[in-house]
Amino acid sequence: MGANLDITEKLQNYINDFGLSLHPVQQEIIDYNKTLGDIKRMQIDPTQCHFLHLIIKVSNIKNVLEIGTFTGLSALTISLALPDDGKLIALDKDEETNKISLNFFKKANQDHKIQTIIKPALESLKELENNKFDMIFIDADKMNYKEYYEKSLKLLNKGGLIIIDNVLWHGEVADEKNNDKFTINIREFNKFVSEDKRVEQIIIPLGDGMTVCRVL
Fold first, then answer.
1. Burial 129-142 (b: 16+ CB within 10 A, else e)
2. Where exactly are the structural domains of the chain?
3. What CATH architecture applies to the domain 23-215?
4. Are the CB atoms for 204 and 212 separated by under 8 Å?
5. Which DSSP state fits 72?
6. pLDDT on residue 132
7. What is the pLDDT of residues 165-203, one digit of tens each?
8. What is the C-alpha to C-alpha distance for residues 8 and 156, in angstroms, rounded to an integer?
9. Contacts of 198 (CB under 8 A, 6+ apart)
10. Per-residue pLDDT reduced to its tens digit, 35-60
């Protein structure tokens, strides 16, 4: 019976050598985030960049909504994968990180594809209720994950995808002794999604864990 490999740093470097290369501005964002201290954890992992790129390409996705943008790595990743007439709406409430991300988008010549909205995401989602998307990427405050998920379902085209980050929560979701509020919230959210008959879903152990849901 096959088993998942433990990905060592050496093996990850090998994988990187034979996989997709990051755009120079993607690497610039990663390098910038390294200067931010512990808050850099809000960034997606480069392996997740590659996954998002591929899923957008193979699924012919054109219209994407992102909930939670930080300094723009995931948004830029999504935009680079979209066709020239593709569109990304990126939601975040932080004006300062938005300014930083906009500079990166412009530097990568992707600003024409990306619209940012700066306000609490739940407010923006209400305003977008007449829009339809092919894919929604959720990577924002964890305590609102269920609300983001429910609102996202109403905004997706049939067969559309919801991709949710941080669902393994540093591995703590599997530790029954860990009962802090964030771990409990993610654990309960994962259970809710796994029982949701409106979607078919899998958890992929990339980065901090990603759930991929396809709307039925």
1. eeeebbbbbbbbeb
2. 23-215
3. 3-Layer(aba) Sandwich (3.40)
4. yes
5. S
6. 97
7. 999 999 999 998 999 999 999 999 999 999 999 999 999
8. 37
9. 153, 215, 216
10. 999 999 999 999 999 999 999 999 99
